[in-house]
Amino acid sequence: MAHEREGLLQAIERDRERILDFYRGFIRAKSPNPPGDTREAAAHIGKLLSGEAVQYRTIAPKSEMPNIVASFEGGAGGRHLVLNGHIDVFPVGEGLGWTQDPWGAALVDGRIYGRGACDMKAGTTASIFTYLYLSRIRDKLKGKLTLTCVSDEETFGPWGARYLIEHHPEVRGDCLLNGEPSGLGTIRFGEKGPLWLAFTIRTPGAHGAYTHFSASATKIAGRLIAELEAVTRIPARPPDNVVRALEAAAPAVDAAMGKGAAAIVPKVTLNIGVIHGGLKVNMVPGECRLEADIRLPLGVEKEEVMREVRRIAAGFPEVGLEEINYSAPSWCDPFGEMVEILRANVKQLSGVTPVPIVSLGGTDARLWRYKGVPAYVYGPPPFGMGSYDEHVRVEDFFRVVSTHVLSAYDYLSRG
Ligand SMILES: [Zn+2]
Q1: Separation of CA 222 and ligand 1 centre (Å)
Q2: pLDDT tens digit string along 108-121?
Q3: Which of 18, 52, 172, 286 has a 20 to 30 A CA-CA distance from 358?
């Protein structure tokens, strides 16, 4: 076993240029979502796999958003590990703030720059090479390995992971490993659940001097927003092992997601992301629309939040309420086997012992957790994620690749 692991690390070392070239080419193959046309980036993966004579399937319920799926059986029976990464990336917009070409994958001072560099073409590259290396020694492995490279993560995956999970149950497996950005010091075993709500406030409206004619939709919005803050006081009741993990991880959570993050991981948060109201300074607004992004921690039910929201909204007869989007919070065992495997490998490769945490943002890993499959995320630090000058240090990139390769190997070497 030690010999096999050594062989895998040597292969990565020998192939450094090739792996890096693949990763940079993957960034250059633009795949912003929206619009979400990932054909060029998916073809980049297909070319690598075909060149290695690795068989794969393209599953494309929406033709411009293909998913790549590959699977092999080991030499003996065992458990089924699934690797998952997404192909699409955030859009760049006007490219404000970028000092490098967002689609250039420039290598500057030991860093690779580009949209998707950390979210998540580094992690998806790690999954792809993990699959490639382990397929070469499949006879020595137990169980089964599946690779899923999906489109459409940035828009919640109706044509990507969600489609595969529902229509291709063979991709569910016994455990999932995903390389979304996490930072090298944390492993993510759960994530909060976004609940997006829209409030529309309608009043007759009037001339701005005739305030006796109509209530103001924007003033009602202001009072409504202040009252909605009550949802952040709904208490969470997570399971004991999650509480223990989160308490132990507080410093690492702040280090990975910014000071203050640990305090909000176990809490309901409220963000009013959009307010649209009023046409002109001298008119009493007759309409205002608010969009609220409420994040549910582990141990809070959607219905509890909705009950509170409906109670508040009932105090404003002018308010209409509509749900835009919801994904339940998800988690799996913070001290599960894959966590132990990842911790040991990260310690060996980087000298740090990562801690299990819950992430604030969402990933496709939740879809596996919903099906009862333990799903863990370990990937590069999120430098510039969703912002400008997104980048990954080359050394961090190779740590992620090596960690995934060794961890998948370890999982499939055990009976
Ligand atoms: Zn992502």
Answers
A1: 34
A2: 999 999 999 999 99
A3: 172
